[in-house]
Amino acid sequence: MRDLVSCFSENSINVTHPLSLPSSCSNYNTSNACIPPSLIPSIQTSITSIYRITLPSKHLIIKVTWCNKINPSHGLSISVSSADQNPSTSLKLNTSSRFFRKKKGNKSVDSDLGKIEALWDLSSAKYDSNTGPEPIQSFYVIVLVDSRLALLLGDSSEETLKKKSLAYDGFDSGKSLISRQEYFSGNTFYSTKAKFVESGDSHEIVIRCSAEKTEGLKQSSSTHNHRSPVLSVCIDEKTVTKVKRLQWNFRGNQTIFVDGLLVDLMWDVHDWFFCNPEGCGKAVFMFRTRNGLDSSRLWLEEKKMVQKDEQDKLDFSLLIYACKT
């Protein structure tokens, strides 16, 4: 009997947690991985995480953006808005603005959605590297709506919550991470990590564009050594797609399986090759999960974030904006 991956698509790639199946990523031949040990990945300039928050009678969208030191507006930005079809922003916060440069503080605003308050402390935040814009420990970011906890990020917020008379262990706001946008600048080697489902494992994603010898075409002696750009995408050291002759195939998509989920992978590297000489090429890579096995729904199809059936799971999308300088 054919497995689910081969039945769904002849071109599908299966990426499984190492403990799940013998054909897992840990058994993949790492000599074929697209992570050269000597190559330094591009610098991650900013990360934006978009959360859908469900509170009693309220559906909110909270955007949290982290920028690193090479960005003119480095720091933390938070925005809270309604999740309806025409969202109106009710709170905006930028800790790196000219008149509001703080590593610790709070801000509140009264709006149609109620009283919204943001609290943050980045004074002792620790980061994964000098270029990583998102802290990994010793920080907190809290968003309250009418004194109810809507968003909690970080690991040093228990004392702050107790001062606000909020129960740390009872936190449940129906939080869902629906999108993550990452911006890179530098060469054509990008490395990041992502969870395709909140309860799943974190996967290492590597995207690399390199020059390889052209195969499969009759070539004259003068072009025998011609090398053309090739795009490789790896998840947990397993190559999930390899696009040859990238100047011809600068846009495309492929279906992959990650932890049993259908994920649409899309790439658009047109500007890497055809942008104006003065500008820098910018590419876009997108990973988007699907609900169920609905193969008729295109990855570009718009979907309302407010579901009538609360049991429906929201899709997750990871967008990588890669600027080649």
Describe the structure.
This protein is about 5% helix and about 45% strand. The protein is elongated and about 65 Å long. It has a 10-stranded mixed β-sheet. A 4-stranded antiparallel β-sheet has the order 8-9-12-13, with no helix packed on it. Strands 15-16-17-18 form a 4-stranded antiparallel β-sheet, with no helix packed on it. It is mainly beta. It has 2 domains: about 5-40 and about 185-325, no CATH class; about 50-180, no CATH class. This is DUF868 domain-containing protein.
Q: What characteristics describe this protein?
A:
single chain; 325 residues; mainly beta; 10-stranded mixed beta sheet; 4-stranded antiparallel beta sheet; 3 helices; 5% helix
Compose a concise summary of this entry.
This protein is mostly beta strands. It has helices spanning 4-8, 158-163, 270-274; strands at residues 13-15, 43-55, 58-67, 75-82, 89-94, 96-97, 100-101, 104-111, 114-121, 126-127, 135-137, 140-145, 148-154, 176-186, 189-194, 203-213, 227-235, 238-243, 251-258, 261-268, 281-289, 317-324. Helix content is 5%, strand content 47%.
